[in-house]
TrEMBL record:
Secretion signal, residue range per the UniProt entry: none
GO molecular function: S-adenosylmethionine-dependent methyltransferase activity
Name of the featured protein: Methyltransferase type 11 domain-containing protein
Keyword entries, A-Z: Membrane, Transmembrane, Transmembrane helix
Length: 439
């Protein structure tokens, strides 16, 4: 009896061990196959899945009769499992690349980075350096929550890849190509901000510095203060006389400081024309100190405010004229940016925002609403938005723009509407002084 029991026990033990190993391997393989087979592979990669899953067949049917053979089979099986995991990992990476091509999110809900990485790798080196990530010298920064930093560049820049490459084509450390008009077209397409460049812009020949304040506010600068090649006019005299020439030009009479510019915002006609002094009287003396003029042409509004010790930054585009250079020559601060860009100011900081003609119905409604909310953001509580001759079609006044302004949350201090008289159409002007509520 004793010898019989001693013989049967190891046999049952080996049988139980084999069964447990079978179950364990089957569970591992089933889970691996389930996870990776249903990983959402695109149809274009089905043949890759078949290739890798076929490689998973393992010798689980015939089992050895000795312990040595069993250990040998286990070693072989473990080696095959390791190879299988490597193959599946490779397949998973390929699927992520495809997902990046298709713009599909990864398991974390974020867009896969491989697509963006490959896009950078396809660009010339200078573009990669300008828009790609740069490792922080001291490693991970708790302040930014990252170990790298991405230079600021507009999202639309990557949409116009060929234009972006052309803009970044120059000799590093040499003179920048004279491509002001091309750069501005990129800005107007939404490639804003443009990437920075490692080249030096050309300086005007025979450059003469600006006149001192306050004379510079109303003085035409010398022609040698700028480079004229990007513009139709080749002198300030030509720009001043452009008002007499036929055809359309942006801000046609802005450079004639002795003409209509000399009298802007000095008088109040009780209708569409508000005077600066009336606007300032709506607030305690000295409480309007800093502000922004959106699309301020040649900077005359900022000049008028400068005479009253108020600092105004003027945004402007160089639409066939050196508007930014002209504003700077007057001793004022220009900002070369379009109306589509987020205002580069912190919230609740500006006392006043002004815009004449630029904020109007030529801007898509949704974009205009974002702009109004952004103005609301940068104005301090009690700050003023001065809409100056906002133009639109007659029905749009009450159907679209008045509700939009109310929705943003501005309080009306003054609201004036009048019909445009320069065209035989149902077009209207709106001038309004609006206030951001104190609470």
């Amino acid at each position: 009896m004793g010898s019989s029991e001693g013989y049967e026990y190891p046999k049952k033990q080996r049988s139980t061990t084999r069964m447990k190993l079978k179950v364990l391997l089957l569970v591992i393989l089933t889970n691996l196959l389930t996870i990776y087979f249903f990983a959402g592979a695109p149809s274009s990669f089905h043949h890759d899945i078949s290739h890798y899953t076929n490689a998973l067949s393992l010798p689980l049917v015939s089992w050895p009769n000795t312990t040595t053979d069993l250990l040998s089979e286990l070693v072989t099986t473990r080696t095959q499992l390791a190879a299988t995991r490597s193959q599946l990992s490779d397949l998973h990476q390929r699927l992520q690349v495809v997902a990046g091509h298709l713009g599909r999110p990864n398991e974390g809900g974020e867009v896969d980075e491989d697509g963006g990485r490959r896009l950078l790798e396809s660009l010339p080196e200078e573009v990669r350096l300008a828009v790609g990530p740069h490792a922080l010298p001291l490693g991970f920064s708790p302040r930014s929550g990252s170990a790298s930093v991405y230079p600021s560049v507009g999202f639309a820049c990557l949409k116009y890849k060929d234009d972006l490459v052309q803009y970044m084509k120059y000799e590093v450390g040499d003179e920048c190509p004279l491509d002001d008009k091309f750069a501005q077209r990129l800005l107007l397409k939404g490639c804003e901000p443009l990437p920075r460049r490692r080249c030096r812009p050309r300086s005007p020949e025979g450059y003469v510095g600006p006149a001192p304040l306050p004379e510079s506010l109303w003085q035409i600068p010398p022609d040698t203060s700028i480079i004229w090649e990007p513009y139709t006019c080749k002198s300030y005299e030509c720009l001043v006389n452009r008002v007499k020439q036929p055809g359309f030009y942006d801000c046609k009479d802005c450079f004639n400081l002795k003409g209509r510019e000399k009298n802007r915002w000095l008088s109040d006609n009780g209708k569409l024309d508000y005077s600066i002094d009336w606007v300032l009287k709506t607030k305690p003396p000295g409480s309007i100190r800093i502000g922004l003029d959106i699309g301020g042409g040649s900077g005359t509004f900022a000049a008028r405010m400068r005479e009253r010790n108020i600092t105004i930054i003027t945004t402007s585009m160089n639409l066939d004229g050196p508007f930014n250079s002209f504003i700077a020559s007057r001793g004022l601060i220009p900002l070369h940016m379009s109306v589509s860009q987020r205002l580069p100011f912190f919230q609740n900081t500006l006392d006043i925002v002004h815009s004449m003609h630029v904020l109007s119905n030529w801007i898509p409604n949704t974009m205009l609403e974002f702009t109004f909310y952004d103005i609301y953001r940068v104005l301090r509580p009690g700050g003023l938005l001065w809409l100056d001759h906002f133009f639109c079609e007659g029905p749009q006044m009450n159907q679209t723009y008045a509700p939009m302004i109310d929705k943003v949350g501005f309080r009306k201090i003054r609201w004036s509407a009048g019909m445009k008289m320069d065209k035989n159409r149902n077009e209207w002007y709106l001038s309004a002084l609006l206030e951001k509520p104190m609470t």
